[in-house]
Amino acid sequence: MMDILTQLDRLAELQAQQDVIRLQYQQMRDSILTPEIREQLAEIDAEESTTSEAVNQGIEQLTTAIKGNVLAIGETVKGDKLQAVFMKGRVSWNTKALDGYLAAHPELAQFRKEGDPSVSIRVVK
């Protein structure tokens, strides 16, 4: 356990180093940009933002429409470059209640499968 704690602390240190490097790089870039170039870049960024926003809205609207249409027909539709994959709804069970029922009916254990465990690394809040 202690080894894992050490590894987690080391990972956090490396991530912090990555942030410092990114900030130093940004500071170096900012130090060589003249006010005129910064202004021009801001104008380019504003134009890109406006154009991208319009395209993103179109993408969102079309994606919603496609998903609704695929749900209505209940099957996957494959285009030349994209496909809309239909997936049936997931079935879920009350595991706690079924485990209790399993205790009284052990013959049902053959139907129970458990997936492999997994690990995700998250920031401590």
Give the SSE map.
Layout: H1 2-32, H2 35-73, E1 77-78, E2 83-84, H3 95-104
Antiparallel strand pairs: 1-2
How would you describe what is shown here?
There is one protein chain. The protein has three helices and two strands; from the N terminus they run ααββα. It has 125 residues and is mainly alpha-helical. The chain has a domain of 79 residues. The protein has a two-stranded antiparallel ribbon. A hairpin with a 4-residue loop joins β1 and β2. The longest helix is centred in the middle third of the chain and has 39 residues. The chain starts with a helix and ends in a 21-residue tail after the last helix.
Number of strands: 2
Report the average pLDDT across residues.
Answer: 93
Number of DSSP helical runs: 3
> What proportion of the residues is helical, as a percent range?
55-70%
Biggest sheet statistics: 2 strands, antiparallel
- The rounded distance between the terminal residues' Cα atoms is 21 Å
Uncertain runs with pLDDT below 50, 5 residues or more?
none
Q: Structural class of the helices, strands and pairings?
A: mainly alpha
Please state roughly what percent of the residues sit in beta strands, choosing from under 5%, 5-15%, 15-25%, 25-35%, 35-45% or over 45%.
under 5%
What is the CA-based Rg, rounded? 26 Å
Approximate shape:
flat
Order of strands across the biggest sheet?
Answer: 1-2
N-to-C order of helices and strands: HHEEH
